Amino acid sequence: MRKLFLTRLKASGGRVVQLGMDDQEGAFLLPFEARELFVIASHAMGWDHVSVSVKNRCPNWKEMCFVKSTFFDDEECVMELHPPKSKWINNHPFCLHLWRPQVGIIPLPPEIMVGVKEWGELDTDEKMKLADELFRKLN
Description:
The chain is of the alpha+beta class. The protein folds into two domains: about 5-100, no CATH class; about 110-139, no CATH class. The chain has four helices and five strands. The chain has a five-stranded antiparallel sheet, with helices on one face. A hairpin with a 6-residue loop joins strand 1 and strand 2 (about 25-30).
């Protein structure tokens, strides 16, 4: 977890609601695009962890990216997990989590399974056209 995330948090106008046992954990209100994200950060039992919630909906991708960049270094890999259903725990209907093991490296899939970097960001029509071309080549 970013060692100086409190500096980044305060620079963005964020507020500390309550610090935990040290300056690397606690509860925070983080302003983002005219709304506040409620964030709880912790680092225990071998994990760096951040939970993110918004009042009446789940956080979106852009909000999660902002929280990730506030609490973790740009080159740290963090993950959202979808555990087996038997392990689900839901204390808040609009909360998502970011996790990073403190030991070891999170394995990543080959980049080509995610997309083609050279294409950049595509709109839906462009994606459909390229996908159609790829499937024709494969068949």
